[in-house]
Amino acid sequence: MIWTTKPYLICDVIPGMILGRPVVSEKGKIVLSENIILTEIMIQRLTEWGFNSLHIKEPTVESTDNVMSLVSEQRHFSQKHSEIVKVLKDSFERARYFKEVPLAQMTELADQSIDVMYKTTGVINHLKSIRSTDDYTFRHSVNVGIIAGVLGKWMGLKGTELREVVMSGLVHDIGKTQVPLDILNKPGKLTRDEQDVMQEHATMGLELIKNTKQYPQPVLLGVWQHHERLDGGGYPFGLSGNEISVNARIVAIADMYDAMTSNRVYQKAVTPFKVVEELFDEMFNKVDPTMSLIFLDNIKDSLIGYMVRLSDGSEARVIYLDKNRLSQPVVKVADGQYIDLGKRKDISIVEVLST
Question: In this structure, is the dihedral angle defined by the CA atoms of residues 82, 86, 89 and 91, taken in order, positive or negative?
Fold first, then answer.
């Protein structure tokens, strides 16, 4: 992200803006340092002390060279992603008909292909730009492997532990290869009986990779338990708390984020802002709170600069996010006006236009 600094009249400054230059008193004392996020109280005090203007930092359009570099990087990422999806699709088809999941192929994907992708700067934004409903099950599995790797890296996992997290994400839905295609690809809402069949995919996935043998225990548990929830409300066994493995907790967060931000045959994608809000709401009873906080804290910065469409039809750029209300950032609309969506309850983000 490239930033620029512009002067603003104090009456036009709102909470959430970032100070671009230090505020200095008449005696030469620094009142506020550069890069401080301004609060309502700060602005009020500066007004009372007689400051008429401030220099504010905000994101700007990148230079042509940077834009071309980003386009090239995105094209390479998308091409690599498509190659991995094809390999995974072949492996899943093999599992459907021959009931075996090639360990060597999955290990190679985790060690080489996926490894490069989850270490890419801005990987979450790259994934956003290649969303597609085509081959959803396979794309989703690749995405969950990548996101799980990103979260594992943010958590400080390395080596074998990180590889096993990535593998857990790649094969977490392998059991869906044993679900009848008319249920798996049904465009409408599933019946209760169909939901019961679909929920068996976690156990069927475990059986498939157990049959292959030599899959590490953390991967087995990641596949088996990725729909379990901390409060015992998940499936297949209603496990709770520490009964759920680390890998399963990581995959659960990656699975939720990718599924909700993807267009599916039966459900339209929601914005990343809505997903992080739901994660925040559920991290004290459904998903691991420590892992969720790490994920939210790191993903927050990637959302700054997004171009979005608001519920009133206008377009805006995200300028600032408060970690306690990530779905309600401060945005800047085309006419230069700043809107704090935390205060304007009548306006919300309905679509992400570009990252």
Answer: negative
Question: Which residue's entry shows tokens 């779905």?
Answer: 327
Q: Tell me, what's the pLDDT at 311? A: 92
For residue 350, the one-letter residue type is V
Identify whether the C-beta of residue 17 lies closer than 8 Å to the C-beta of residue 40.
no
Please compute Rg for the chain using Cα positions. 23
Q: Which residue has the tokens 């401080």?
A: 36
- Contact (CB, 8 A) for 42 and 32: yes
Quick one: pLDDT at residue 133?
57
What is the C-alpha separation between 344 and 140, in angstroms, rounded? 35
Q: What is the DSSP string of 208-233?
A: HHHHH----HHHHHHHHHTT--TTS-
pLDDT at 70: 60
SS3 2: coil
The angle formed by the CA atoms of residues 17, 22 and 26, to the nearest 5 degrees, is 125
Pairing of strands 307-310, 315-320: antiparallel
pTM (predicted TM-score): 0.80
* SS3 of residue 10 by DSSP: helix
How is residue 283 written in tokens? 């991290």
Contacts of 169 (CB under 8 A, 6+ apart): 141, 144, 145, 146, 147, 148, 149, 222, 250, 251, 254, 255
Alpha helices in 213-288 (DSSP H): 217-225, 246-260, 272-282
For 225, residues 6+ apart whose C-beta sits below 8 A from its C-beta are 202, 239, 244, 245, 248
Of 60, 116, 53, the C-alpha closest to 84 is 116
- How many residues appear in the chain? 355
| Predicted pLDDT at 65 | 58
DSSP state of 241: G
Q: CA torsion angle for 125, 130, 133, 137 (degrees, to 10)?
A: -70
Are 86 and 34 in contact by the 8 Å Cβ rule? The answer is no
Give the Cα separation of 97 and 279 in Å (integer). Answer: 36
Mean pLDDT by 10 residues, the chain (355 residues): 81 85 83 81 89 84 56 77 90 90 86 78 75 77 94 94 95 95 88 95 94 88 97 96 96 94 76 87 90 89 84 90 81 86 89 77
